[in-house]
Amino acid sequence: MQAFRAIYQRLTFPFALGFVIALLPTLLFSIGQLVLFIVMHTANMGGSAHI
């Protein structure tokens, strides 16, 4: 049982790391879209409404 737990802990860390790395592009893309939306919205509020 102790050996199983050691193997389990050794396997979960790389898996969690891989999961975070896999989600990172999606997260960055979402943040980028949000920032872009805010910038565009602010620019439109400023009066420079050119598309």
Low-confidence stretches: none
H/E topology pattern: H
Instruction: Write down the oligomeric state.
Output: single chain
The whole-angstrom Rg is: 21 Å
Morphology: rod-shaped
Helix content range of the residues, please?
Answer: over 70%
In percent, how much strand structure appears in the residues?
under 5%
Determine the number of helices (DSSP H or I, runs of at least 4 residues).
1
Kindly, what is the distance between the CA atoms of the first and last residues, rounded to a whole number of angstroms? 64 Å
For the biggest sheet, the summary is:
none
- On the 0-100 scale, what is the average pLDDT? 86
Instruction: Give the structural class.
Output: mainly alpha
Count every beta strand, where a strand is a DSSP E run of 2 or more residues: 0
Keywords: Membrane, Transmembrane, Transmembrane helix
Transmembrane segments: 12-39
Written account of the structure:
The chain has 51 residues and is mainly alpha-helical. It is built from one helix and no strands. 0% of the residues are buried. The model has no long low-confidence stretch (mean pLDDT 86).
